[in-house]
Each structure stands twice: as C-alpha cells, then as structure tokens.
Specification:
Number of strands: 2
Order of helices and strands: HHHHHHEEHH
Distance between the termini: 40 Å
Radius of gyration: 24 Å
CATH topology of one domain: DNA Binding (I), subunit A
CATH class of one domain: Mainly Alpha
Shape: extended
Structural class: mainly alpha
Length: 199
C-alpha cells in the first residue's frame, strides 16, 4: 500500500458508527447552525472564486469517481429536496421567461454579434479540417467524438477571438457542444485562455 494511504476496514467503520450513535445533532440545533451561516453572517458572503481557482478545482476533481454505494446514498438523500421536482412551467410562464431574457434584456447580450453572418470561408471542409487537426477531441474537456452521446454527437469549431470573419486555422479550435456553450460566458477570459494555450 502506498505511503500515506489509509484504508478504513469494515470493523473500523463500525466502531466510528457506534461511537457517533446518539451524538447526531437535533433538527433544532441544525436549524440554529444554519441560521448562523445565512447571508452576511457567512464567511464566504459576497466573495467569488477566480477563474483560475475554479480551473484548479476542476482539475483536482477530474478522474475521481464515486462508488456505486455512495451514488445511491447521494440519490436517496436528494430525494424530495428539489422544489421543482415533478413540476413543470406552464406555457404562459415559459413564454414570459423567454420574453424577459430576449435580446438586450439578456445579461449575456453582446450587441447582436451572434446574428452576424459568417464569412464565405466558413465551410464544412474548413470545420472538418480543424476537427481532424485536433484529432476529433474537444480541446477543453478532452472528450473524443466517439464518446459523445445525446443529440450533439458532432464536435463544434469555435472562433477563439469570437470574430466570425477570422477563419485563420490558428483562430479556430475544436470544442464539444457543452464546452462551446460554456465559452459564450466571460469571453475575454476564454480568448486569453485559448491564446495562451496555443503559445
């Protein structure tokens, strides 16, 4: 066994369980603890994680998997906690939500950039050549085209500088649909990120 790795035996787990019996916090105690951490009382209130910190957290969790038993427990404890579970918005509510976020009402509005037409150089052959160059792998999360599931089984080609007229291969990169959507937020960060990665 590698140095520093500690594996809990079933006997050890049983002893911990026995020792904790009767020491579980009451609902009232938990409620009071929750109240003490609400809003401005919370030490993390008003703070935001930097993109670099988020990236490091993401890297640290890559490849980690829960045991089936753990997944089952998480599923059981989450049951009934989602207030929207089993509920659906009415068509009228959906319409109102859609209207409230249309065009310049949307916080991600960029002055209509997404409606600008692509240049004549933006061809299927060009996009396919970029996918081939990148070995049909998303350059952000590393997923291969053969691993894609659901409706989006084709990799996208993304403009690093978000300029649709700039179809220079150095400005194009292969992304899966999920990562492509992700890069629509905080564009300045992603432009710098991909440019620094290509140096």
């Amino acid at each position: 066994m590698p140095k520093g790795v500690f594996i809990r035996t079933e006997e050890f787990k049983k002893k911990i369980s026995e020792a904790l019996k009767g020491k579980l916090k009451s609902e009232e105690t938990r409620r009071k603890m929750s109240e003490r951490q609400k809003g401005e009382k919370n030490h993390f209130f008003g703070k935001k994680l930097s993109e670099e910190h988020k990236r490091k957290m993401s890297e640290a969790h890559k490849g980690k998997k829960h045991f089936e038993e753990t997944k089952q427990k998480i599923g059981e404890t989450s049951k009934g906690r989602n207030p929207m579970l089993g509920k659906h918005h009415s068509e009228e509510t959906k319409r109102k939500i859609s209207e409230a976020y249309k065009g310049d009402k949307n916080p991600q509005w960029k002055g209509g950039l997404s409606f600008e037409p692509y240049t004549v150089d933006w061809t299927d052959d060009l996009r396919e050549s970029i996918r081939k160059r990148d070995n049909h792998i998303c350059q952000l999360c590393g997923i291969h085209k053969d691993e894609l599931i659901g409706r989006c089984k084709k990799l996208d080609t993304h403009h690093i500088d978000y300029n649709k007229d700039n179809c220079n291969p150095d400005n194009l990169i292969t992304l899966c649909r999920k990562c492509h959507i992700r890069t629509n937020y905080n564009r300045k960060y992603w432009t710098q990120y991909f440019k620094s990665e290509s140096i």
